[in-house]
Amino acid sequence: xxxxxxxxxxxxxxxxxxxxxxxxxxxxxxxxxxxxxxxxxxxxxxxxxxxxxxxxxxxxxxxxxxxxxxxxxxxxxxxxxxxxxxxxxxxxxxxxxxxxxxxxxxxxxxxxxxxxxxxxxxxxxxxxxxxxxxxxxxxxxxxxxxxxxxxxxxxxxxxxxxxxxxxxxxxxxxxxxxxxxxxxxxxxxxxxxxxxxxxxxxxxxxxxxxxxxxxxxxxxxxxxxxxxxxxxxxxxxxxxxxxxxxxxxxxxxxxxxxxxxxxxxxxxxxxxxxxxxxxxxxxxxxxxxxxxxxxxxxxxxxxxxxxxxxxxxxxxxxxxxxxxxxxxx
Length: 329
Known about the structure:
This protein is an alpha+beta fold. The protein has 3 domains: 24-73, no CATH class; 80-179, no CATH class; 191-327, Lipocalin, CATH 2.40.128.30. 19% of the residues lie in helices and 44% in strands. The chain is built from 4 helices and 19 strands. It has an 8-stranded antiparallel β-barrel with strand order 10-11-12-13-14-17-18-19. Strands 1-2-3-4-5 form a 5-stranded antiparallel sheet, covered by helices on one side. Helix 2 (27-49) packs antiparallel against helix 3 (53-73). The longest helix has 23 residues, at 27-49. The chain is globular, with a radius of gyration of 25 Å. The relative contact order is 0.10.
């Protein structure tokens, strides 16, 4: 079977297109557009004979709708890899939509079958770029889903092109599938961990370097994935409801997401106000396990959206370090 991928590499930039456009893959779009055109043409003809404003406005609306439908139906999907970034690009007739992800933060790149539970993941943790995605990867605590009409072997081919061009092996699911590393060593995660996190330089000279303690409860630990709770013992979230934790391990590597179901802020009087209607931005932890000392340690990052537009958003990233020891008591 012929691959749907069209690969071009030039001047250190990898450009991969996915087959044809939506009009070629989904004939229903063409039918809808044809009907819109016919409707717009009929109403436009009526507007010429009628001097009233309503037919003219209706005709203009139909023509705008027709143009919008054609623009969306002509969408082409592609991936660009350049300057250490993975860009998922949607090219239309009159505009282009881009979503950029640094490769160093992309993991678990894999095929997304129709029956996969990840398709029903909570919207808070999922960025679904198309209605019927075939590819997914993890990025800073989110499941990014894209890629229309691709087969599993084409997703393997897609990742292989990226790995060859950049040296990044984005695949992983803990079982060796899609080239993932076979787990040779298990981190003994089950139980409780006592640890601390430290604020980085982005917090300014007054707060940078401050350390806050926490307790990690690992409720479920499988071969490569785990889930649990984190209770902050100091800081803004001291003794509030624990945050939910979900993550995975690969040999000595660990990565997990910390997500509070609520947000908090200080009011004008310096009092802490908890908002249970809006969750806090997820915190993404990654690190390594030192078996000799029984120590988990690494870095954390939280990405906050500070400004948002129609097809863009401006983010602020805050970072720091963390460590934890297993509590055998």
